[in-house]
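ingest -> validate -> predict -> emit
validate: passed (alphabet ok, no gaps, 809 aa)
predict: started
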Amino acid sequence: MKNNSQIYTGIRWQVIFSFLFSWLCHSVSGQIHYSIVEEMRKDSVIANIADDLGLDIKQLSFRKLKIISYISEKYLYVNLDNGNLYVKDRIDRETLCGAEATCFLTFDAVVENPFNVFSVSVEIQDINDNSPVFFHEPFTINMLESTPSGTKFTLQGAEDPDMGVNSVQTYKLSNNQHFILIESMNPDGSKFPELVLEKPLDRETLNALEFILTALDGGSPIRSGTALVRIIVTDVNDNFPVFNEQLYKVSVNESIPTNTIVTAVSAMDKDEDVNGQITYSFSKTSGYHKGMFTINPLTGEIKTNSNLDYELTKNYELPVQAKDGGGLVSHCKVLIEVIDENDNAPEISITSLTSPIPEDTAPGTMIALIRVHDKDSGENGEVDCKLTGEMPFNLVLSSNSFYTIVTTSAMDREKVSNYNITIVATDRGSLPLSSQKTIKLEISDVNDNPPLFEKSIYVAYVQENNLPGFSVYSIHASDDDAGDNAKIIYSISNKNTEDPAMSSCFSLNIDTGVIYAQRSFDYEQHNEYVIEVTAKDSGHPSLSSNTTITIKVIDQNDNAPKLLYPSPESGASAWFEMVPFAAEPGSLLTKVVAVDADSGHNAWLSYHFIQVSEPSYFTIDEHTGEIRTQHVFQEKDILNHKVVVIVKDNGIPSFSATVTITLVVADNFQQVAPKFVNHFPDDETQSNLQLYLVIALAVISLLFIITVMLAVISKCRKSKPFPVYGPVSSNLYPQVDPRMLSHYASGTLTLPYSYNVCVALDSGESDFTYMKTNQNVPVDNLIDADDSGHGNESLKAALPTGNQIQVSY
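emit:
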């Protein structure tokens, strides 16, 4: 317990000394050096590496400070909360570095944001934690009783894995009367003990003796190891084997096959017979060569027993002994140096990777940190790296073994959404070896594409009288972005401020882009809507685009023809026409005028008789509605004809309107009067009948007076064999309001027209007399308003030269 207490006290003082000795050296290369002793307790603080690197402790987590090393990570770690570098596990210098004079743990301290690499080395100093050990114990020496005084006997030295003063420094021999101990030096600087015979032996007096050999190191406290030395006194074999060399050195390639002769040792013994027969063997040792080599006991040939690996062991020290038949032993050392060959391909490790990265990442941004390591040495361990393929990335050497992958140009996720970046590492050996590693880098989307419509203008059609909620059109926009950046919301706006409010006419599904009718449309009221649709994505900031949709209302046949002349509002009793007896076939009697509020085919009107006397005395033009005579009238013919005209449109289903016209064949008004009176329907009220009778009598009286006056004037002038009466203008048909007719400008006849029919009171006049008006309108325009050309010729032939029809606008 006392010795252990002294040992721990010594370790504690060395630890304290190491902390006082620990220092930071910022050299030109940016390296940091620390020095600690081995066997420090777990979680012991080495130094505050954050302060030494000039890093803000608050940003250590953000900058991702880390230790990168294949070995150091096992023994050291960094606390990101305080920036201290700690001991992670027991550090045994002898296990870590073996017999090397210096021992270092090296690692790279890596930080990001911005990226930087610092080289850090931690020197592991030796403490005296190992005692010297003798592996040949006991030592047995056969010695002749006749051996002269001063003869030396070489003993195998003790081994101490500690370094410097902590290794074996001296040997001591227990008290005896025959031998003293001297220390000799090996070629490598190590000491070995030799026994020197000081007083001759007498086998008859003493045939064997034993004493203790002690090896002491120079540590504090001092550690020691002991071995028993046994001397057997014989009376023969007075010569020791002698090696040709005390130290054999040989170099071999690590790739040599097993059972290959590495070297051969040789020793000579001057004795004869059995005493001169030498046997070779390896001395027992703590070296790392156990099982790696074999030695031929008769020839001294040393062969490989397994494959060598430079990366595991670079040097082997083989203690060899030669023992003759009499038991005398000599020792030598064989040093085998392993020569490195390029048998290890570079190793690629991804230390840091940022994925995904936005597509608008600026050029020069680091996306990955790559560490490349080759276990070989020299040129075999020097590595060159490159990226394969054409990509917007570059590989930049940052330190001895670190590379960064940085962006070199802008990226477009819509063209390439991910990259497979392949890194190829090749060493510089005579037969180069290479390896590769592939990184999959995802590109994240940014909102850099607005929604796009296929067209700038769309045209949609909807029939009038549609049901509310009817799907009018489905608009669609596409966005090359992804996620919310491609999620489109549609909205509708009124492009033409003169149109009705769009909210009352149309609605739009904001997700699907389907446009619905909010109400039923009427072509005759509004036949076209121009709306603007906006597609807006959900990115930040959002992008949008517009398109125009013209929605045209398709006409349906939902309006019946409307009669303008004869006007149904004036009553059926007023619609009669006088037909002169002398009217020639084809003479124009009157014209039915109608309009249809619909358009296109639905507004094409045709005129037909549906109720006419037999045989038929009249014809009606299907297209113009003109009623003409069919043949010359006779006295025996029926003089009162009632016809029903139907006006039909061209729609499906067809709509129609009817009007009844009474055609009276007479040459003067007196012949018309009784028929006119009887024309009133019997179901008229008595009051209305009396009113009509009074009006009729007044008109007849007035016409009689005018007739008498004209007869007198005609006889006085005697300019004609027959009396000619001046035309009496009788506007039997009321004027049509132009404001109403302008609404029906699409009708069959260009409107407005009013016909002033003048009835000749003289029976000798068999044709219509047309009044001259303030404005002359060609007969062609009146007769065939739709340019059909039917009936124009006969009408022109029937008209006297210079006679024109009165037209009011």
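The chain is about 10% helix and 35% strand.
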